[in-house]
């Protein structure tokens, strides 16, 4: 049980954590949608209330190095668990480096299956070195190992990124990768790319937001249905010229030879989904694993030996076979607040719903006792067209939940800074931040009225840098037509953390220090009048 604090009895009203997804802090104004947004409420909070900056990237959130940006999974894991675990990106890299991955049963089953049946080994996943969902180096290591182990035929299905890496960088990955395959290819080893498409068009949907994407991916990778091209470079060049889309939004393509697709997925094949992150892996995994599947008509359901890079959901055991064990995230704040008998409320719209539930609770999909979840359905539109997203509805629901008096601890996520930040539109991203500001201005007074306190923070940066800046010159890069190259990915910047307290008469503040997202759980525990769990990182709270 969490012990009661002796120095402080705890706030009587609700403690509310508000995550402004993708709203990082940078002193640089140019290309910074957060700084440029008209957000009088948030600006006044930064003047009036105790605040600090939190590290939200690199080793502070369990990434392999400090060159790695943060992301929603590692960010919400750290906030919810109050601790830093080595995350998927680091675990897989290590397992490959030590060779452990190839000694485990999952890899052996995948490879023995294709050797025994003389069938094809397929790799499907996000094709970049973004290190958020996947890393192309992991893919290359597995292909090289497959050749070493005498596998005869490999097909690769590539989901183009442009979201965790520069927006039109796909050919920077395709070129060197084709060369890598050319060097491996031999009469005994037949390897090539078989299909692909933009990650926001096919396969990588999350939280059941848009199953049509997964259906289109299935048609592309499994059935080989779609527009044929002779190779990936031709596909990308043609589709870019026709659609003007950035990589993440490019339509699907099928690589064909002599009028037939080169790599459909058939009975007896093995399939490795090489993304390590779960949210955008669960739906396609279900399509490959579920015997009775109702989300769309698969037309053909090949009997394959399937493995995910990691297990994506420990409660649902999805997938059954995985190449590397996921981090065992234990003693989350959700669990211990539940054991303390507290009532918890979590809310976001579909796009971030799993962030405040599944990621928050250490990648568990089931609830702890006393937890209530509310999902507001997201629009299925390009978010630069609706930068306000469902911020008003999230605010309405949070106001109702706070005012109901039923909950001791509440959490919500405003997706705007992140989802609109990923589109690369600076104009829309400033509006996204402004929409969050409107929400805060409505919600926080209700928390006052209930005698509560709020922590306003974020999980990583995104909208704080909307220009792709040349590291050497410090100037924004430009496109061929002279326009500024947009940055669609997250940033390495810290995030704000504001303690909004109008109820203790100034007794509480945040200590100066070198803090990260993993310090939030202990801080919340203290606000509730409890000591932190022994495994959590320290509280930032100073109590007078
Ligand atoms: O999945 C995505 O949309 C991006 O790769 C990462 O964004 P998130 O970590 O904020 O979800
Ligand atoms: Mn996020
Ligand atoms: Mn994001």
Task: Outline the structure in words.
The protein has 544 residues and is an alpha/beta fold. It folds into two domains: 15-86 and 329-543, Alkaline Phosphatase, subunit A (3-Layer(aba) Sandwich), CATH 3.40.720; 89-308, 2,3-Bisphosphoglycerate-independent phosphoglycerate mutase, substrate-binding domain (3-Layer(aba) Sandwich), CATH 3.40.1450.10. Helix content is 33%, strand content 17%. The protein contains 17 helices and 19 strands. It has helices at 33-36, 40-48, 72-81, 88-98, 100-103, 105-117, 136-148, 170-184, 211-223, 232-243, 282-289, 333-339, 350-359, 391-404, 416-421, 426-449, 520-527, and strands at 15-20, 51-55, 121-126, 153-160, 190-198, 228-229, 253-257, 260-261, 270-273, 305-310, 322-324, 344-349, 371-376, 409-414, 453-457, 495-501, 508-510, 515-516, 541-543. The strands form three sheets. Strands 3, 4, 5, 6, 7, 8, 9, 10 and 11 form a nine-stranded mixed β-sheet that branches. Strand 6, helix 10 (232-243) and strand 7 form a beta-alpha-beta unit. Helix 14 runs parallel beside helix 16. The longest helix has 24 residues, at 426-449. One manganese (II) ion (MN) binds at residues 21-22, 72, 75, 418, 459-460. Its cofactor is Mn(2+). Residues 14-532 form the Metalloenzyme domain. Residues 92-313 form the BPG-independent PGAM N-terminal domain. Its EC number is 5.4.2.12. It catalyses: (2R)-2-phosphoglycerate = (2R)-3-phosphoglycerate.
């Amino acid at each position: 049980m969490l012990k009661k604090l002796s120095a402080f009895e705890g706030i009587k009203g609700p403690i509310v954590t508000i995550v402004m997804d993708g709203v990082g802090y940078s002193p640089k104004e140019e290309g910074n949608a957060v700084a440029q947004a008209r957000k009088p409420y948030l600006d006044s909070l930064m003047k009036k209330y105790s605040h600090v900056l939190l590290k939200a990237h690199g080793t502070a959130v369990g990434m392999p190095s400090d060159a790695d940006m943060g992301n929603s999974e590692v960010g919400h894991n750290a906030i919810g668990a109050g601790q830093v675990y080595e995350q998927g990106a680091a675990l897989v890299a290590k397992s490959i480096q030590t060779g452990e991955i190839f000694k485990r049963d999952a890899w052996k089953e995948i490879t023995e299956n294709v050797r025994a049946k003389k069938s094809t080994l397929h790799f499907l996943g996000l094709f970049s070195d973004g290190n958020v969902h996947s890393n192309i180096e992991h893919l290359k290591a597995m292909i090289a190992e497959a050749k070493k182990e005498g596998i005869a035929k490999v097909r690769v299905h590539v989901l183009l990124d442009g979201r965790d890496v520069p927006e039109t960088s796909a050919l920077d990955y395709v070129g060197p990768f084709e060369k890598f395959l050319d060097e491996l290819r031999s009469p005994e080893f037949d390897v090539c790319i078989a299909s692909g498409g933009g990650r926001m068009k096919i396969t990588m949907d999350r939280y059941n937001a848009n199953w049509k994407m997964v259906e289109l991916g299935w048609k592309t990778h499994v059935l080989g249905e779609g527009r044929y091209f002779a190779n990936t470079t031709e596909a990308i060049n043609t589709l870019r010229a026709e659609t003007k889309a950035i990589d993440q939004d490019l339509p699907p393509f099928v690589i064909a030879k002599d009028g037939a697709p080169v790599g459909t997925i058939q009975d007896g094949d093995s399939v490795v989904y090489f993304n390590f992150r779960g949210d955008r892996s669960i739906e396609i995994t279900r399509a490959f694993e579920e015997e009775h599947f109702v989300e769309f008509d698969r037309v053909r359901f090949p009997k394959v030996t399937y493995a995910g890079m990691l297990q994506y959901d420990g409660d649902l055991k999805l997938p059954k076979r995985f190449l590397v064990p996921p981090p065992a995230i234990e003693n989350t704040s959700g669990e211990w607040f539940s054991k303390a008998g507290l009532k918890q409320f979590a809310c976001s719209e579909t796009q971030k719903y799993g962030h405040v539930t599944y990621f928050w609770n250490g990648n568990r999909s089931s609830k702890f006792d006393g937890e209530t979840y509310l999902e507001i359905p997201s629009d299925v539109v390009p978010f630069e067209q609706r930068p306000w997203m469902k911020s008003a509805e999230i605010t309405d629901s949070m106001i109702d939940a706070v005012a109901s008096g039923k909950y001791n601890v509440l959490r919500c996520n405003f997706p705007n800074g992140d989802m609109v930040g990923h589109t690369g539109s600076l104009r829309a991203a400033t509006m996204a931040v402004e929409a969050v500001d409107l929400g805060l201005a409505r919600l926080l007074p209700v928390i006052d009225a209930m005698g509560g306190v709020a922590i306003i923070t974020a999980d990583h940066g995104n909208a704080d840098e909307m220009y792709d800046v040349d590291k050497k010159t410090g100037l924004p890069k430009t496109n061929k037509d002279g326009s500024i190259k947009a940055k669609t990915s997250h940033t390495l910047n810290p995030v704000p953390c504001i303690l909004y307290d109008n109820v203790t008469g100034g007794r509480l503040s945040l200590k100066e220090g070198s803090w990260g997202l993993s310090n939030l759980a202990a801080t919340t525990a203290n606000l509730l009048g409890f000591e932190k769990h022994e495994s959590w990182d320290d509280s930032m709270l100073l109590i007078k």
